[in-house]
Amino acid sequence: MYNRDYTPERISSLKENEIFVFGSNLAGMHGGGAARIACERFGAVWGQGVGLQGQSYAIPTMQGGMETIKPYVDEFIAFASAHPEYRFLVTRIGCGIAGFTAAEIAPLFARAIGMEQVILPEDFVEVIEK
After folding, report:
1. Residue 91: inside a domain, yes or no?
2. pLDDT for 1 beyond 80
3. Residues 6+ apart with CB under 8 A from 64
4. 1 lies in a domain?
5. Mean pLDDT across the stretch 64-89?
6. Which of 98, 95, 86, 25 lies closest to 54, judged by CA?
């Protein structure tokens, strides 16, 4: 059961221990959406499409369907599990420029529902808890 805050719609600043989790492309061309915000504000590195970068964490969503996104979400969940000192603010990855719906992406995060340090968007939680 999910019993904590949801990821805010707009994130303009982070506390020292917070990580902005965003959807990226494998080439790390952070030109739009949450990826651009991650690059401009939270230390995402141009040319790095996966993993921790500054106060951001990139999950590739532009390379194919759910089967190509799932391994990267699983990698993120393992990383978050190994780093309880951080609070991960998961944006609606894949639901903007990549063109997926919350109903498609949210189930990939089902294993994170019980992780206190992973904050999910409200619509992701609604999908997972149904």
Report:
1. yes
2. no
3. none
4. no
5. 97
6. 86
Cα(128)–Cα(109) distance, rounded to whole angstroms?
8
**Segment 61-76 mean pLDDT:** 96
**CATH number of the domain residue 73 falls in:** 3.40.220.10
State the residue range of the domain holding 84.
18-129
2 within some domain: no
Distance separating alpha carbons of residues 49 and 39, to the nearest angstrom: 11
Number of domains in the chain: 1
